[in-house]
Protein 1
Amino acid sequence: MSPVKTLSPLSPDTRDTDDAAQKPSRRRFLQSAAASAAVAAAPLASTARAQQQAATPAVAPPVTSAPTMPVKLTINGHPYELQVEARTTLLDALREYADLTGTKKGCDRGQCGACTVIAGGRRINSCLTLAVMHEGESITTVEGLAPGGDALSPLQRAFIEKDAFQCGYCTPGQLCSATALIDEYRAGDASAATADVRFRPAQLSDDEIRERMSGNICRCGAYPNIVAAVKFVASSQG
Ligand code: FES
Ligand code: FES
């Protein structure tokens, strides 16, 4: 006879235990939900802390004044001794230190010519050069073009008579540039528009003037009248 396999009925306790293993009780569900929330909240809390720290303005480093050095310039015939930082451009030295604000800052990067002055007899963009590089030099700005008093230079008069400006912002640079241009022409300097560089052109043509003034931008577009003013003075003075 084959042995009889006895199957005892499951007691109520055993049934509860097995049920509990397979189905989470309400208490277990609440416990595990609370644990999950704690785990999820941990990174959020650290992110909020990081954002709070990022929003806190950084403490600015203490302002330290850069070392300065003296530079001696003769500006419009007057001696100046300025105490400037080595990085100060000639343009800023004129405007901010010598208080000669006739020279204008347009682009501050050598593109517009508004800052043109005459340094050591040559017209330059004063925004592209450092003041300390001109130690001992003579600088002429728009304030120094007129002979003095109420008198104007021939070019200044011609700019008025020929209506060679509108807003006037570029005019100081145009006047310094044109003043040096006429000196260059008289000295026999050629330009890219000079047909025969062995000879000084008998007259400054419109093309010559446009080429020689091409570093000075006028946003008002007063170019035809500027050319007329320069031509008038160049031809009347020989
Ligand atoms: S300000 Fe110097 S060239 Fe424009
Ligand atoms: S007159 Fe206005 S930019 Fe020349």
Protein 2
Amino acid sequence: MRNVVVTGAAGFVGSQLAAACLEQGDRVVGIDLMTDYYDVAQKESNLAALSGHERFEFVRHDLATGFDEFADGADVVFHQAGQPGVRASWRNQFDEYLSRNVQATQRVLEACTQHGVERLVYASSSSIYGNADRYPVDEEMRPKPYSPYGVTKLAGEQLCTLYGQNFGLSVASLRYFTVYGPGQRPDMATHRLFEAALGGPVFPLFGSGEQRRDFTYVGDVVAANLAAGAADVAPGAVFNVAGGGDHSMLELIDLVGEIVGTPVPIDHQDPERGDVTRTGANTDLARTVLGWEPTTGLRTGLEHQHAWHVARRN
Ligand SMILES: NC(=O)c1ccc[n+]([C@@H]2O[C@H](COP(=O)([O-])OP(=O)(O)OC[C@H]3O[C@@H](n4cnc5c(N)ncnc54)[C@H](O)[C@@H]3O)[C@@H](O)[C@H]2O)c1
């Protein structure tokens, strides 16, 4: 039985990854600081779904203060914890991004190196690409983040790569492209669209709606993590994890309206600083090295997310 640690285990991706690890027979220690970036009740509900499991243990802990006691005895660490969100990463809030994305990652890396953890998987982000020179982006392209958030995710990723190169730590970084699906964070567009269509607050559309995103189903992101936890990868390797095709916000708005059966009410707003015009990835490397590719199409994934919104409202 593998001993697995999932950081950010109360969050959107981390909670579903922890559940998948339990499902495949691992013993799982979940760590989370339970930050209030969004409603903590959603995190508590994520944890409640895991807490009954006999092979699951939860520890509330700030990774920026250290990770030694958790790396000791761990076989695989999935480092999902972080401070997400592009728009909130300006001004003094940057301090939280530094602590939660950079300092916390450095503590995880030090401890995993000291305790000989067999594999560390880091949740990186498409935000490291910024507005790219060409699409779809591949892992060889020069990163040029466009938001403070992107800078801190890139710093975390580059720390991973250099710990791999300097110490031979077996670490892989996965660059997620806009994750959606059941359990999605309430600050994310798809979540707000469903809530707006179901009678909640009107959806604030920043910019023209022509901006394009490569949407990745959360189940596919979990599968990419499981693959990266087991595959033979070079220390410090980096992989795009994307849904395979980009869509405009206007297309997404129409699709959500179609699934709910009512148009989404929109409030047009100016573009937000830090928002890129397009994301879109080539995932050939993940397919070749990890044996992973996305399997859930956008409409199917959105239907699963719709069902989740309806169930939680009832
Ligand atoms: N959701 C996406 O579309 C997306 C895209 C690209 C990258 N990512 C990255 O994937 C990871 C997971 O994202 P998510 O959407 O599940 O976010 P999330 O906010 O739902 O989960 C992250 C969790 O990390 C915890 N955390 C933050 N700082 C911590 C610390 N210092 N110590 C312990 N726990 C801490 C938070 O409390 C939160 O529960 C993040 O690192 C994020 O940057 C997400």
